[in-house]
Amino acid sequence: MHWTEKGGLLLLAGALVALSGPFAATTASGAPRTTAAQAAYAQPAYALPQAPADPADGPDPIDFAVVVDQSASLADKDLARETEAAALLSQGEISERSRAAVIGFGSSEKPGQSPVREVCPLTVADAAGRERLSDCVQQLNHRDRDRTGPGTDFPAAVRQAVTRLTEGGPAAGRRAGAPAVPKVVFLLTDGKLDVADSPEYGTDRDSRQSNGARRLTEELARARAAGVQIWPLGFGGEIDRAALTAMAEGGYRGACSEIPGSVPRMRVVGTSAEIDKALQETFAAARCARIAHGTVGKPPADLTVSIPPIATDGSLTVAKHDPKVQVTYYDPAGRKVPVRGEFDGSSFEVSGQNGPVEALRVKNPLPGRWRVHIEAPEGHRDREVAVRAIWQGRLRSTVVLDPASPRAGEQVKVEVRMQTRRGVVITDPRQLAGIAVAADLKGEGFRPVAFRLADDGKAPDATAGDARFTGTLTVPDGATGDLELVTRMDAPGITSDHRPLHARVGEGVPLVAAGLAVEGVTVHPGGTVRGTLDVTNNDTAPHTLRLALADQTPGAELTVTPATVTAQPNRATRVPFTISVGKGTPPGELGGQVSVVDTGDGDRVLRGAFLAVRVVAPPTWWERWWKAVLAGAAVLVLAAAVLGIRLAARRRRRDMTGVTLELCQEGRPLDSLTVRRGQSRGGAFVFAVDEPYGAPPTLRRLPGGGSSTAHVLRRTGAGELLLRPRGGGQVPVRPGEPTGLGDHELVVRGGRPAPPGGRGSRGSGGGLWSGKTGGSRRTGSTAAPGGRTDSGGRTGDAAPDVFPDAAPDAGGDYDGNF
Asked: pTM for this structure?
């Protein structure tokens, strides 16, 4: 295939790829795949402002103390990193009801010294409290050797922390041995127990270490009895791992969940540079939260960190190191968020702006990639800044019972679906990885019943991995009256709200039974969802049934038609109904359920069903017609490519590059001239025969076009050669055969196109020349005006020809009569 055809096909392929580019991110069904920016706006309730959540609806609080080693073995840089790590915990706490204390410790070796230094008393971590903690924690950077000795008094540090966390007597509301509010000690150290010079542990220096070890065991037992967890974090090469393990295992062994990672354990890192990351990970494990590590950079820079859809409460912590670093926060929709107050369904609260650690606490965060922009003046840009997010998902459960009003001794199917506080329905099973779901049934006449629910596709669960958890239980025989069902969820970073579902024990065979089915579809705002109600009324009187919607996604505008149905006596009836989705309904997965209740039986719930409806934005004009536009554009591109290929082929066939004109007389060659690239414009080569006095005639190209002395050799689109002698009509020319040209004859030879970029040669005889003459040449010829003479006296390339007696055709060639 010639390069022209190849180029045309490549042009066609490239154009099609370019046109289809905007549609590369489509699903197999042809629907556009949501981009990251679109996904940010597609969350169901984000665009709908909501009232701030009640504090009790937020994450569970904890009381914690950060205990920091200030012994003489620490270099100043290590102490600074410990200080920043302590600030990260106090600033990054996600509950405004939590309390935090910060304590430094060393030893007491002479009068006036104390082994502990409480720089921050137990402080509520609300907006004002976090600012106080940001200021007081900086006191850890300054060691007072007159007040604190250089040793490492672990027993005194644990005693001080436990005392502060348990002030006010035993924790109220303790159930089954667990404290009502978790109490946690995070202990940072670079070494081991060192009380050899502390008189408190005896007069004999050799026995002080063993006395200190016994005292530590006693203090850990006290912590265990008070329900205080110990999470030690060591760094450096002098760590006593056995002692740290004993501290973790000696304190309270309860945890925030049944997840193994939430049980206290020790951790060791190589250097103080790793403290902040390790301590935040430890903190997340202790309070059943998750941590997302973001990017790192020096100002000015844009850092990013991602918050998943399952998160309901979180803090973005920025380890600035330098208070001069200024931070600006942008949500995944690219909008700058306030440092305090409500904005588009979320609430914000920043703290630590004047310290080395800054944090933005967010309720109901928009899921996606958050951007943190950092700036700093000259001289304050040499240290790397890191951003992380600590978050927790407090989920609400939507429960469907089948039957809705079970009888005593009857088996009940329980199906649970989860959604966040802002109404985001959890449909991705990956977000629920590792979750354990259970439920407790309480009521009159029986002991509480606990059972598990699963999403494994095994009966009674219908489909594995659909984020719907199913289980069964049998209502105890002694059950009477009301039933209360509470679901429990355990997973790293996930807690449940423990809202109860109330049902009523049915008596005898129900007179009215109902079946409910709702189609699972994707609709646009303003669309409808179809459903079917099957009802059987075994009573002798009609019953009025009402279709009701519950646990709707905030902002959803849903109505059911018809709202009521009359079940005729002694008859089974099928009633179709529709759920209308209002035009103001935001995009996203609709939560909640539809249920049918018997208004004549105290609004007894007969049946319920989850809504499996996804709302998507209506398609734009482009989304509706892009296939037609693409098809039309492809046809145009194909037509243009075919036309281009045909015209290029036609030009190639008419190209006379390489044709040699030989002037003869009575069969004897007189002169020759080879057509070089670009000299046969429009398939025509114009030349003249010069007959100087006393010299043989010569051939000369006429670069300026036709004239009264011009002869024209032309090649047609079919490849035929035609000669129009000066002043005469066209005559056909056969290659290699002489054709009359005045007093002479013209023989045309060759015609193979010259190689790209090559130049033809002249000489006697047929064929192409390769830069050397093939016979005798005469010299001294005079070049035509505007031309140039080569070594053989011949005229070289000149400006493009102009043919006043010919007009260009559609392809730019000249098809006029010569």
From this structure: 0.64
The length of the chain is: 818
Amino acid at 798: A
Both tokens of residue 197?
A: 């010079």
Give the separation between CA 650 and CA 654, rounded to whole angstroms.
6
As beta bridge partners, residue 610 has 593
Whose tokens are 């002798």? That residue is: 540
Q: How far apart are CA 240 and CA 307, in angstroms?
A: 37
Q: Is 640 helix (H, G, I), strand (E, B) or coil?
A: helix
Sign of the CA dihedral running 491, 495, 499, 500: positive
Cis peptide bond prior to 460, omega within 30° of 0: yes
SS3 639: helix
Q: 401 - beta bridge partners?
A: 414
The residue assigned the tokens 């699963």 is: 454
Give the span between the Cα atoms of 33 and 590, in whole angstroms.
19
Judged by DSSP in three states, 578 sits in strand
State pLDDT tens for residues 12-32: 344 443 444 443 333 333 333
CA-CA distance, 392 to 461, in Å (whole number)?
27
Q: Work out the burial of residue 364: count CB atoms within 10 Å of its CB; fewer than 13 is exposed, 13-18 middle, 19 or more buried.
A: buried
- How many C-beta neighbours within 10 Å does residue 805 have? 13
Alpha-carbon span 311 to 313, nearest angstrom: 6
How far from the centroid of its chain's Cα atoms is residue 279's Cα?
27
Q: What is the mean pLDDT of the chain?
A: 82
Q: What is the DSSP letter of 679?
A: -
